[in-house]
Amino acid sequence: MALAALRYGFDTLRLPEILAITTRMNLRSQAVMRRIGMTTDSAEDFDDPEVAVGPLRRCVLYRKRAERVARR
Question: How confident is the model at residue 67, as a pLDDT?
Answer without folding.
Answer: 83
